[in-house]
Design goal:
This protein has 23 helices and 7 strands. It is α/β, with parallel strands linked by helices. Strands 3, 4, 5, 6 and 7 form a 5-stranded mixed beta sheet that branches. Strand 3 and strand 4 form a beta hairpin. Helix 6 runs parallel beside helix 8 and helix 21 packs parallel to helix 22. The longest helix is centred in the middle third of the chain and has 26 residues. The chain starts with a helix and ends with a helix. The C terminus is likely disordered.
Length: about 525
């Protein structure tokens, strides 16, 4: 930044960005630690990712007002990978993911990562929410997750029972009380006066839970963070790096890259709708995320994405430039050095409460009502994605949703309803109703219907409900019209409308292709 523009920034947007960065820091700190614990890694790994997301990605980002950091959406996937490969291999997986994102950004594939059906995205978020609830309910009572998502869910009653009985002041019982208190605070905080709500609800819940735990000296689990952040970084070793071509790690890295990129770019699109400033450069954002995740891989921390909770807090607090995201990274780095004793007093159950609360918000009934406007098939894809994620894993569940979306697309563009009916009021008249997409795939069906038309009738072909028609079907209708008239029949058809359905679409495609080249 040039000296003149820097002075202009200090006089203008700096004050707003400074205030916004403080708010985002207060939101991000408990989330960084909570996501790390839920992912099965030390809290420091989450804070390191938050620092890189602020200092590095904040500087390079194509979405200046978006804030990046460890995301709840990846917790279940990362937990599975840590259990399967070990914490030492996490850095390799994240490095692979970051490298893929860098290449995708350089190849200008940013827009393509957004080409995902809303039903799959909503299903992915809901599935993640269900898995988070399943795993973090156990942490809420100072217990450990049981393994798979399905196992966690069916063992929730056991966790609740353990948190309630026996009422003898045992650690599980006390942790459940503190966790429940945290959830109640977050749920009730939306009713607080507007001026007070500048304090983030998660921060308030953690602060009160920490105060209660310290005041009564509760024998429950607490966060463990060292002030020597660099000394506790899980640097990627040469030995670990040697496994970078392991097919299982490559698949894991690809899964992280795809899901993180989709979540980031969808978040960026949502952020664009929340302000009137510069629009997102998706390729640059994807590249910046790749650089950030590559660095996270080298230091063995969690992967990052653009995060809507922190980004919306950034906008609501009045951020004007990328400086707010960068400064929040500075505060995260300073907190590990200056507030270590405070962080170590935080009960893990309060962080689990934040994630459980987030999980319930992800499983939103509003999404189902929204998708229902576009048909029951979209809700079915949503449900299949959720069930697939819970029954198998995140990647397979998303692939199930994508597969069903593609199947629906193929059906839509190959389905043609042809109905031939005689008009009773006018003897000798018939109507042929076409509905759907008339393509060469359904040409035999259309030809068979036309062959059933008597030779000397007047046929009215209704095109209003036809979504698309290709040149093969237009040729069939044109040739059949000549043959039918030669036999004494008559055809009534809006040829102008028919040609527009084909040629307007064709010219649009050709124009788009010319613009791309």
């Amino acid at each position: 930044m040039r000296q003149g523009s820097f002075h202009s920034y200090l006089r203008g947007a700096f004050g707003k960005d400074l205030m916004a960065s403080a708010v985002v820091f207060l939101v991000a700190l408990p989330l960084c630690m909570g996501v790390a614990i839920a992912s099965g890694v030390p809290p420091a790994a989450g804070i390191v990712t938050g620092v890189i997301g602020g200092l590095v990605v904040g500087t390079l980002a194509g979405s200046p007002l978006q804030v990046s950091g460890p995301a709840a959406g990846l917790t279940v996937l990362i937990w599975q990978y840590v259990q399967a490969f070990g914490f030492s291999k996490l850095g390799v997986i994240v490095l692979i993911a970051g490298s893929i994102q860098i290449l995708a950004g350089l190849m200008k594939l940013g827009q393509w990562f957004r080409a995902t059906s809303p039903s799959v995205i909503q299903g992915m978020l809901a599935g993640i929410g269900v898995l988070i609830i399943g795993s973090q309910t156990h942490v809420l009572v100072d217990d450990a997750p049981k393994g798979s998502g399905w196992t966690n869910l069916i063992s929730i009653p056991e966790a609740l029972w353990k948190g309630i009985f026996p009422m003898d002041g045992a650690a599980h019982h006390l942790a459940a009380y503190v966790g429940l208190l945290s959830i109640i605070i977050m749920a009730a905080w939306k009713f607080a006066p507007g001026k007070l709500r500048i304090i983030p609800a998660p921060l308030l819940a953690v602060a009160i839970a920490t105060l209660v735990s310290a005041l009564f000296q509760l024998p429950i689990k607490h966060v463990s963070v060292s002030s020597d952040l660099l000394g506790n970084v899980n640097w990627l070793s040469v030995e670990s790096l040697s496994g970078i071509l392991d097919p299982s790690l490559l698949v894991a890295g690809l899964a992280v890259a795809l899901i993180a990129s989709a979540e980031t770019l969808l978040c960026a699109a949502a952020v664009d709708q929340m302000h009137q400033g510069p629009r997102t450069n998706y390729d640059r954002e994807l590249f910046a995320q790749g650089v950030g995740n590559s660095l996270c891989g080298l230091v063995g921390s969690l992967p990052m994405t653009g995060v809507i909770v922190r980004s919306s807090a950034n906008l609501e607090a009045g951020a004007r430039t990328r400086g707010a995201a960068v400064m929040h990274g500075v505060w995260l780095l300073a907190s590990v050095t200056l507030l270590t004793s405070v962080l170590n007093a935080v009960p893990t159950t309060s962080l689990a409460a934040i994630l459980v609360f987030t999980g319930f918000k992800l499983v939103s009934p509003k999404a189902v009502r929204y998708l229902l406007k576009y048909g029951k098939s979209e809700v079915a894809i949503y449900a299949a994605t959720v069930i697939g994620i819970v029954a198998t894993d995140l990647l397979k569940g998303v692939l199930i949703g994508l597969g069903l979306s593609l199947a629906k697309l193929v059906y839509t563009f190959s389905h043609l309803e042809v109905r031939l009916a005689s008009d009773e009021p006018k003897e000798g008249d018939s109507t042929l109703l076409l509905k759907g997409a008339a393509t060469f795939v359904r040409l035999p069906k259309l030809a068979a219907a036309l062959d059933q038309v008597p030779a000397n009738v007047r046929l009215h072909i209704v095109l209003d409900q036809l979504d698309y028609i290709d040149h093969a079907c237009i040729d069939l209708l044109s040739n059949w019209e000549k043959q039918h008239e030669a036999k004494g029949g008559q055809i009534i058809m809006e040829w102008d409308l028919l040609h527009r359905k084909y040629f307007d679409r064709t010219s649009t495609v050709l124009a788009a292709a010319a613009a791309e080249s």
